[in-house]
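Quick one:
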Amino acid sequence: MLALQGGGALGAYQAGAYEALCDGGHMPRWVAGTSIGAVNAAIIAGNQPEHRVARLREFWEEVSSRFLGWPLAENGDARRIFNETSAVLSAAGGVCASR
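Output:
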């Protein structure tokens, strides 16, 4: 049983964790989730086992942050730089949440 909880960016982590589980030969037979975890669970449950990781990757590539302008490089370097910059800014400034 794989239980996936909600929480935005946690969903992207879950997709990577599911891929690692599959790579290690541990494919769960039951999947459940809430919020973004339910979306990931639906993608997993709704696809044949050999397509699940690819479908999760497609989903997360589609919904993840994008540049608002033209990319500086076509080979993925612009996305890598954007992701690394976002990670540094989050680590330096934290994540703001309103209560």
